[in-house]
Design goal:
single chain; alpha+beta; Chemotaxis protein chec; seven-stranded antiparallel β-sheet; two-stranded antiparallel sheet
Length: 153
């Protein structure tokens, strides 16, 4: 099992890509990212159909696991995650420039909305229509046992 980050990011806003493909990093996380990673981020494809956005140290953990894969599809997973790896820097306007090929792959529209979602130790960037479809699929399967039996005290 891999190490788990002490950093946790949850939820997030719906943002708009500007005409150049830049996305503003939400202010509630910008200081943490600047402190932790000197304003550096990594973006790559995610098999769920979104883009994964990581601090470099968290991405390094993912890369270590991907590089150690030995099953028949190991090369495919390396291509997906490592082949789409792009380093980003938060600019003076608190934005990151998403590469056009990754924007197209994720289904983002020019000047369109993007769901900027903290999901623990990293972020996911979603096209709003895709995330709605994905969530409906997940909900239709029913809650996993730990959530069905959860009791708050």
């Amino acid at each position: 099992m891999s190490a788990v980050s002490q950093w946790r990011f949850f939820g997030g806003p719906v943002l708009t890509l500007d005409v150049k493909g830049r996305l503003t990093v939400p202010s509630k996380w910008r200081d943490q990212i600047n402190e932790r990673a000197a304003g550096q981020l990594v973006v790559c494809k995610d098999p769920a159909g979104c883009l994964g956005l990581y601090t470099p140290d968290i991405f390094a953990q993912l890369a270590d696991v991907v590089l150690k894969l030995t099953d028949d599809d190991a090369d495919e997973w390396r291509r997906l995650y490592l082949g789409s790896h792009t380093e980003l820097e938060i600019d003076s306007g608190s934005r990151v420039l998403l590469p056009p090929e990754l924007r197209r792959w994720a289904g983002f529209k020019e000047n369109g909305s993007v769901v900027f979602m903290g999901v623990g130790a990293h972020f996911e960037l979603w096209d709003p229509g895709r995330v709605e479809v994905r969530e409906a699929q997940v909900i239709s399967k029913g809650k996993p046992e730990p959530l069905r039996t959860l009791v708050f005290q």
